[in-house]
Amino acid sequence: MYLNNKVKVLGLLLTLFIMTACYKADDYLYNVDEIMSNLSVEMNDSTLSANGVDSKVITFKFPYNADDQLTDLLVIASNGTFKESDNDSIKVNFTKLDATEKYKYSEVTFVSTASVSDCILRIEVLNHFMNDTIRFENARPVSIDVSSDIYFLKNDTISEMTLGTTVLSTNGVASSGQKIVLSVNENVGFFNTNLVTSGSSGGANFKYVFTDTSFVGPLTFTAKTTTVNNDTISGSKTINIID
Question: What would you measure as the largest C-alpha separation in the chain, in angstroms?
């Protein structure tokens, strides 16, 4: 019995010795510079529509033999968000092997904003980084909405109302930078501004101060902008002023 156990132990030690002898340090990527040079960033297309909803999957790949401690990425977007983190940055870990078993990879979903500024992806490993670029195409305006949280207002006091306007494209919002002209059907107060510009979410807020406490009736706010063909599009929201 003792002899059998001794044979088994010797066999195990021999197996470990053979495995160790076959292993080469050069086969294992543990240098950050080397790992960064082998990092692959893959996208099926590097262009998105700047409409706040268009998205694409980004695949990050590392060789399977890269040091796990050196393949934790921090990815930061200068324009846009990541669906998984709902933020402009995300931490990426590699837990999957691809079909060839040569790479471990991770996938994240990147979502555009309405800003047409190109997105610079900064990919960091420890103190090392590399950049990649996602370009945005202009999403043309096709309609405009005006919104408010209130539907009626009592006329017994001077009141400030906040309203919002959003310029829409065929799919999502229109790209930012749209000039929006505001008006109201009755002269019973004043705007904080008659002109707003749509921002990175495709819209803009404005305020109206109601001052005529004798007025009763519908107060209709209208927002207008132009398309790329210089056609005017408009939207409106009515708030009823009551006694």
Answer: 108
CB distance 137 to 174 below 8 Å: no
C-alpha 120/C-alpha 100 separation (Å) is 30
In the block, residue with structure tokens 């060789």: 63
- Neighbour count for residue 171 (Cβ, 10 Å): 12
What's the number of CA atoms in the CB half-sphere (13 Å) around residue 212? Answer: 11
**pLDDT 10s per residue in the chain (243 long)?**
444 444 443 344 334 333 333 434 344 445 667 767 888 899 988 899 999 999 999 999 887 877 766 668 899 999 999 999 999 999 998 777 877 778 888 899 999 999 999 999 999 887 788 899 999 999 999 999 999 999 999 999 999 999 999 999 999 999 999 999 999 999 999 999 999 999 999 999 999 999 999 999 999 999 999 998 899 999 999 999 999
Amino acid in the structure at residue 239: I
The span from the CA of 147 to the CA of 204, in Å, is: 11
